[in-house]
Design brief:
331 residues, three-stranded parallel β-sheet, 14 helices
Length: 331
């Protein structure tokens, strides 16, 4: 029986962190067993907000290495770099003929980015949802893991697929959001202000590339309070987040010991954070070291990237041949 096709991408615009690991990467590893998976590094997308490309190559290598170090198997999935698949750009061109200026200007992310980078409102930023649609539709993916900020873009991808099918004949399935449900672990920043970030608020974010001392320092500076005064109190978000991190990195025995101390109003946050820091060091260290080994082995990293590109191009070319036939672009 044919497996359903799943597609997801990560922009190489900073260092991957624990939120990326539990929000996406760990789930990629689970999906590779049951789905036909295409995972890519979205280097074209990064140009819309990060035009300085001096560090781009190393960032791409690091994203590839950290995904493999986290358990992704290049033999089981297509792990590729977006710009290695030129068929995406051709489909992007065709889909732009089905996208309208008014709807693109209304997208939430475009309006937000236009405010934050008023001197760089480029055409790529405006047509970002069209390129995202091309990424998805080129493999005729039916499941796309997306966060809340990308749901509108996925809806637009469905619209473009529907318009293409109506105008030229049915080629594309309509992609749906991949829902992990209760299995999705949400990681907040260590200061309690929103999510961890790939490029901002670095002292409140645990990166997969952080060394042991950096991990300890960040966790010891994590936001806490004076402690509960009433037994079995509800934990504030920033305290709950630290317990979530402990559930990830520590043994059940350690987690329940500190949870009981919290419920009995006897917790000492200094001891709690010291334990969490050492357990988090033990959790991140193997990923960091394996990723570093892969990234420094240029022959291996190039092999992984080429293998992914070959798989992705085979799929993309098959789709593009159908698209060209439908549009009558074959002479």
């Amino acid at each position: 029986m044919n497996k359903e096709t799943v597609l997801s991408g990560i922009r190489p615009t900073g260092y991957l962190h624990l939120g990326n690991y539990f929000g996406a990467m760990r789930n990629y590893v689970k999906m590779q067993e049951d789905y036909n998976c295409y995972f890519f590094v979205a280097n074209w997308h990064s140009l819309t907000t990060h035009p300085d490309t001096k560090a781009l190559q190393e960032s791409v290598y690091r994203v590839i290495a950290e995904n493999v170090a986290s358990g992704l198997d290049p033999e089981k999935v297509a792990l590729y770099v977006q710009s290695d698949v030129p068929e995406i750009a051709e489909l992007y061109l065709y889909l732009n003929m089905l996208a309208y200026k008014g709807e693109l200007e209304k997208t939430t992310t475009f309006k937000e980015k236009a405010k934050t980078q008023p001197d760089n409102i480029n055409a790529g930023l405006l047509t970002y949802p069209v390129l995202m649609a091309a990424d998805i539709l080129i493999h005729r993916a039916v499941k796309v893991p997306v966060g809340k900020d990308q749901e509108q873009h996925l809806e637009m991808a469905r619209n473009f697929a529907e318009r293409f099918n109506f105008r030229y004949g049915h080629i594309f399935p309509e992609p749906q959001a991949f829902n992990f449900g209760e299995n999705l672990i949400k990681i907040m920043s260590l200061d309690g202000n929103g999510k961890m970030s790939k490029s901002e608020n670095q002292m409140a974010t645990l990166y997969l590339a952080d060394d042991d001392d950096a991990i300890r320092k960040k966790i010891m500076k994590a936001k806490t309070d004076s402690g509960p005064t009433t037994p079995n109190s509800i934990k504030p978000d920033y305290i709950e987040n630290l317990f979530t991190l402990m559930k990830i990195a520590s043994t059940e025995e350690v987690y329940y010991r500190f949870d009981e101390q919290y419920n009995q109003c006897s917790i000492r946050y200094g001891d709690f954070k010291k334990q969490l820091a050492e357990d988090m060091v033990a959790f991140i260290k193997p990923i960091r070291e394996k990723a570093s080994d892969i990234q420094n082995d240029k022959e291996l990293i190039h092999k992984i990237i080429k293998q992914g590109a070959d798989k992705a191009r085979a799929s993309a070319n098959a789709t593009l041949q159908e698209v060209r036939k439908a549009i009558r672009m074959i002479y």
